[in-house]
Amino acid sequence: MIASPSRRARISEETIAQVKERADIYEIVSEHVILKKSGRDFSGLCPFHDEKTPSFSVSPSKQMYYCFGCGQGGDALKFIQQIGNQSFADAVLGLADRHGIEVQTEDPQQQQEFDRQRSYRQQLHEVLAVAAQFFAAALASPKGRVAREYLVHDRGLSDATIGKYQLGYAPASWDALLRHLKRRGFDDDIIDAAGLSSSNENRRYDRFRDRVIIPIRDELGRTIGFGGRALGDAKPKYLNSPETELFDKSRTLFGLDIAKVAIAYDVRAIVVEWYFDAIALHEAGIASAVAVLGTALTEPHLKKLLRYTDGKRLVLNFDADRAGEKAADRAVGTVESLAYQGSIELRVLALPIGKDADSFLKASGVEAYRAALDAAPMWVEWRIDGLGRSSDLSDSGNYQRAWKQMLEVVSPVRDKVLRARYAERCAQWLACGKSKKIPALSFAISRELMTGRVVEAVPSDRVVATDAPRVTSERSLLMLFLHCSDLRPSIRQSISYLERLQLSKESPLAASGLDGIWQALRDSEDPLAALIEMPEMPDCIGNPLALDMVTQHQVERGSEVLSSLVAAIEQRLRESRLDGLGQQLCKTNIECVEEIRCLRREIAAERAAIAKLRSRRRVKSAIY
User: Fold this and answer.
1) Distance between CA atoms of 353 and 331, rounded to whole angstroms?
2) What is the pLDDT confidence band of residue 542, given thresholds at 50, 70 and 90?
3) Hey, which residues does 226 pair with through a beta bridge?
4) 227 forms bridges with which residues in the sheet?
5) Spatial contact of 402 and 430, defined as CB atoms under 8 Å apart
6) 73-74 and 289-291: which strand pairing?
7) CA-to-CA distance for 287 and 261, rounded, in angstroms?
8) Lowest mean pLDDT, pick from 209-223, 293-307, 356-370
9) What's the pLDDT at 535?
10) Cβ atoms 51, 341 nearer than 8 A
11) What's the predicted TM-score (pTM) here?
12) What distance in Å separates the CA atoms of residue 340 and residue 42, rounded to the nearest whole number?
């Protein structure tokens, strides 16, 4: 980093104006904040105060930012000052260095120091560029025959791809590159600082020897380091440049200089583990892939990557082995807080065991990979699947542990639709292949996520709801309403008909204690979702998805059962009214002849109606 002047006035106004003209507010802010498109502008969580709802806005057209929560705002220079606690001069010099702007000062002596330090960074870029040319030439020479065969035959790369990535070969000689760079005029300090040489007590030697060389470039396409793949038995198999002033693997994504346009077009980015996976995907026409150089995905990686995708969609595709699973798990851990917030859409592509992206493409082809990519599950589903696969659910202890762990994964999800989907995914595993148990388990999980109370969590080889509520016509009618969406209009009309009969001062469902639930659900477009979100659920309904054999039979027959259930409820209401009329008749004074006649006519009418209802009830699946 170039040293800053002691006073702002020593930087020329011309330099400041050039920096402001070249600096892009979106590019700078997006290195620190995950931004989402919002009309013509972008929004995100403010980096200057804690908040859960985005109030931070960036306007590319105005080249300004502003937070409606804390009031911080300004241009690109102001943002760099605030986010890095830098002086104005440091902010100007940092952007000047980033954009290759020559810094002019009013102090000739200080100007010489700036020029010297800028020359140092330029020399690092130059020596790396010369080294890349040397490796590429070595690949094309007779000494590079084995390396070329590896790239063409083993990796299946075309000459065009080899040239596009400037792939090369580091000769087996101890100092072939060192001697070449010395002849080109580079001194030992610059060669060492670029990470191209190593040394021991006796000698200095080339860092990369007898390896296929993959240049690592920054977003502008400048070589900042190298990766080397051993051709023989040398260890390690893959070797990267050491960290230098230009190269930091925790901030560098291989292939981003080529992939950034495709990421913006595809509205998603694919992250793989190694260079050859990214190169193979690019050659297959899937150009939105980048590689993390064998390290964990970091927050700087993420922020750099998401600058290029408005949709903030990220797909992790790490190797399908234990190490790859651990890498994917670490990567998910890095970004899960953002994923839970909904700031990014994170998916995990799990290929068959033993396959990475490169080997899968060779074995199955690009269309199979595209299909797998499009079908990649959300990261929460991937976590649930991992827990399901790794648990012996036939054991009660493991079953309860898996239940708890799955809920821990799902519970931070705030989106109701996604939470319901993930609850069903958990249920699919916990049902242990018994599909009829999935709805009941899904409901139990959703209720526990909503209320924090366990509804029912029993292994699938045990009986569910042994103390289930007594099956009544009213409860069966409610079950039809919940499970048979096509019958809901008819059920609403039927209950309205029963209410209009005015056979009782109470609701038709009051006798079974279900009136409150019915009133809450009758107008809902999604009664099951509404039921899950109810703070309290009467014991008389139990788990409405843990269906007993009778209710299950009724739900399956649907419309055949509906008329019989309505008739049964009407009959019960009329029988209750008949009892009331009989009691009223007994209490009536014998001298009230007209009132007695009236009551007897009503009793006769109720008896006739009850007899007629009994003849209509042909389906005997309910317990009365």
Assistant:
1) 19
2) low
3) 215
4) 214, 240
5) yes
6) unpaired
7) 9
8) 293-307
9) 60
10) no
11) 0.64
12) 20
Sequence-separated (6 or more) residues with CB below 8 Å from residue 333: none
Q: What is the C-alpha to C-alpha distance for residues 324 and 249, in angstroms, rounded to an integer? A: 18
State how far the Cα of 563 lies from the Cα of 546, in Å rounded to an integer. 24
Q: How far apart are CA 116 and CA 325, in angstroms?
A: 47
What's the rounded Cα separation, in Å, for the pair 321 and 335?
21
Query: Measured over all CA atoms, what is the biggest interatomic distance in the chain, rounded to whole angstroms?
Result: 133
**The predicted structure's pLDDT at residue 468:** 40
Task: Quickly list H helices, 313-452.
Answer: 322-341, 357-364, 366-374, 379-389, 396-410, 416-430, 438-451
Q: Does 623 have pLDDT greater than 60?
A: no
pLDDT grade, residue 247 (50/70/90)?
A: very high
Q: What per-residue confidence (pLDDT) applies to 50? A: 81
Cβ neighbors of 168 (< 8 A, separation 6 or more) are 132, 134, 135, 136, 137, 138, 139, 144, 212, 213, 215
pLDDT given for residue 549 in this prediction: 58
Sign of CA dihedral 236, 238, 239, 244: negative
CA distance 474 to 134: 84
Helix or strand holding residue 239 (H, E): strand 238-240
- Flag whether pLDDT at 260 surpasses 50: yes
**Euclidean distance between CA atoms 236 and 441, whole angstroms:** 49
The pLDDT, as a whole number, for residue 459 is: 40
Per the CB < 8 A criterion, the answer to whether 22 and 95 are in contact is yes
Q: For residue 495, what are its two tokens?
A: 């209950």
H or E segment to which residue 170 belongs = strand 168-170
- In this model, does residue 624 exceed pLDDT 60? no
Q: How far apart are the first and last CA of the chain?
A: 85
pLDDT at 104: 77
Amino acid at 169: Y
d(CA 36, CA 30): 10
**Sign of the alpha-carbon torsion through 469, 472, 477, 478:** negative
Residue 421 burial (C-beta neighbours within 10 Å; 0-12, 13-18, 19+): middle
**Alpha carbon of residue 509 to chain centroid:** 44
The residue count for the chain:
624
Contact (Cβ atoms closer than 8 angstroms) between residue 402 and residue 391: yes
Q: Identify the burial level of 10 via C-beta atoms within 10 angstroms of its C-beta, where 0-12 means exposed, 13-18 middle and 19 or more buried.
A: middle
What tokens appear for 201 in the block?
């007590």
Strands 289-291 and 269-272, by their bridges, are parallel
Determine the Cα–Cα distance for residues 467 and 222; give it in Å rounded to an integer.
71
